[in-house]
Amino acid sequence: MICQEDIFMFSLQRIEQAILREEFVPYYQPQVNVLQQKIVGVEALVRWQHPELGLLAPLFFLPFAETTGVISEIDGLVLKKACQDIHELHRLGFGMSVAVNLSASHFNHKYLPRMIAEVLEETGIDPCSLVLELTEGVMIHDVQQAVRVMREVQELGVKIYLDDFGRGYSNLFWLLHFPFNGVKVDRCFIQSSTMDAKNYEVLLSILDLSRRLNLEVILEGVETEQQLQFCGQQGYGVAQGYLFSYPLTIIGLEKRFWLERLQEGLLVA
């Protein structure tokens, strides 16, 4: 039996081959408009489709990939494939955005805006449908360059979100000094908001601040009906979590959209 350690060590030997063979693929977790109960976006989450071991979660390969810098190549594969998939769904009449995570090494590359422009042109996706998700650590080393790169990417029509806001050493500096279009509130707040009074108040403060700064908001980690009700009460209509769906293949995502149309009465079963 192969244990986790064996898989990780094996991945160290195979990861470059896997990049060449395009074995890293995106799975899509829906982002749902709470009031409309409708998918309005997805987050592309990388998985390794290993030919012998099956589908591997990021914990088996991302630590090595980030340490060696090959994570930027994986980012590029996932970004291109996600844009291709979403463009095809747009062609079928399913409108949505797609959010893709970028690593620190990839984001700090001075040619990132050019690479994004090339992907947009090659895949044909509407730039307004693409969201790049960044964590604070991406921008810590060179603030001026980070702002410059963000501006260049946004000039293409692409949005940029601050991911996992509220985790670790989050503070107002990031929202006040970087030109984000939106934030994704870390799951720890919504999952503890009904049990921990302090977290509840912090969450309300984050939502109020985001509204005042005209930032779009996505609440992560929604897993219960009570949490869903909270989202609706606060007037923030977009949420993401296992209550709606686990990450799906592109085929599974397309099936979800066809099901939505059936439920809306737009198709005859």
UniProtKB/TrEMBL annotation:
InterPro entries in alphabetical order? Cyclic-di-GMP_PDE-like (IPR050706), EAL_dom (IPR001633), EAL_sf (IPR035919)
Matching SUPFAM superfamilies, A to Z? EAL domain-like
EAL domain boundaries: 8-261
User: Which organism was this protein described from?
Assistant: Spirulina subsalsa FACHB-351
| Lineage summary | Bacteria, Bacillati, Cyanobacteriota, Cyanophyceae, Spirulinales
Report the protein name in the record: EAL domain-containing protein
